[in-house]
Amino acid sequence: MDTMPYNSVWWPMRGHFEKTGGGIPPTRILKEFRLLASDDGMNVGDKILVDQFSDGEMVDVIGRSKGRGFAGTIKRHHFNRGPESHGSMNVRAPGSIGASAYPSRVIKGNRSSGHMGDARITAKGLTVAKVDAENNLLMIRGAVPGAYGSIVIVRKASKGDKKKR
């Protein structure tokens, strides 16, 4: 984790770090994890290392997907394009969005243009390919959400192992 000097930490966050007994230097990311009663040996500020995972284990990976900004209906909801020939003006337009006289409004939940991406995504049932305890690296087989270098949370799979095919 990246540590930060105390003068670059906001006052409320500085209080969080000082209440831990002064043993934890300020870090860029502060994340709280709920522990089970069986995890009795953990204290505030302990580092969680990758040695708790093993090769071939099923994990869930939580991250933020890549943000795409304001996206149209074709990109966001995979709508089909209209015809491009003979003066058609309906190439990338979404088409009709509802009735006219009744109910004379757009129904909520209509799939239309808007903000796409930058959402919390959980990729479930991924496999741990290899654990490198010396360098504290975890290699995961599968689609990990987020951009390169983004922060992810790896936890043991909430559901059982997939059926072997």
Characterize the structure shown.
The structure is a single chain. This protein has 165 residues and is mainly beta. Helices cover 8% and strands 21% of the residues. The chain has 2 helices and 6 strands, in the order H-E-E-H-E-E-E-E. The chain has helices at residues 11-19, 73-77; strands spanning 58-64, 69-71, 114-116, 120-132, 137-141, 153-156. The chain has a 4-stranded antiparallel sheet with strand order 5-4-1-6, with no helix packed on it. The longest helix has 9 residues, at 11-19. The mean pLDDT is 87.
- What does the average pLDDT come to? 87
Overall number of strands: 6
**Can you give the helix content as a percent range?**
under 10%
Structural class: mainly beta
How many helical stretches?
Answer: 2
Please list the strands of the largest sheet in the order they lie side by side: 5-4-1-6
Radius of gyration from CA coordinates: 24 Å
Encode the helix/strand succession as letters: HEEHEEEE
Strand content: 15-25%
Largest sheet: 4 strands, antiparallel
Morphology:
elongated
Q: Unreliable runs, pLDDT <50, ≥5 residues?
A: none
First-last Cα distance: 39 Å
